[in-house]
């Protein structure tokens, strides 16, 4: 029989009669030598069995009784007083020697509501409306020769004695139209009133030169009174403000004009004097 299983034929591989052949190795030896040889070959120490210290050789482990320790001492009783001790305090009384001060009751101050202005704003609106409308109508009639107005040529004839009469014939109606529109709208009223003061002041000075009696108010003709009253109305609007019926209703000068009114009024009068001085060559204060 071949030793290598690869060399066996199929019949030899199926033959089971040689199982008891002496070629099968048998192990002989004790278990201790085998286990010792195993740990020796691997280089490790064989395990050892460790028994408890109290284990007896012939019987089970008997537990020892625990040690007891006794303390000897003396007991001491302490008496505690649980009731607190109260000490009566002698009351002291403070005497106030100051005299009482009585405050006088102030009378209530009645503050008038600024929003309650009655018909003041409506009156200011009418003043602005009439003044602005007159300036607009007069200027438009001059530019377009409406209602028998001689137009700019008529103003040139009226200002013929002045060095810059032709220029003044255009400047005067232009300023009237601008001031009138802004006054009717209530827009930039201090500036619009300033322009109205300047142009009406110039026309008032021109009317004085045409008046034979000069500043004699009893001899003034309607042609003299009209520019004078327009100048007065322009000053009134400047100092009263436009009121609440206008574009400037939210402005401070609409209800309570202060320093701005004085400044604009003085500038308007100064502008009228300068127009007269440089436009006509006549000193207005001479």
UniProtKB/TrEMBL annotation:
Keywords: Cell membrane, Membrane, Transmembrane, Transmembrane helix. Its main location: membrane. It comes from the Bacteria. Residues 10-20, 65-78 have a biased composition (Polar residues). It is found in: Cell membrane. InterPro entries: DoxX, DoxX-like_oxidoreductase. Residues 1-84 are annotated as: Disordered. The chain crosses the membrane at residues 125-144, 164-184, 191-208, 228-247, 259-278. It is a multi-pass membrane protein. One of its GO terms (cellular component) is plasma membrane. Belongs to the DoxX family. This is DoxX family protein. It comes from Corynebacterium haemomassiliense. The lineage of its organism: Bacteria, Bacillati, Actinomycetota, Actinomycetes, Mycobacteriales.
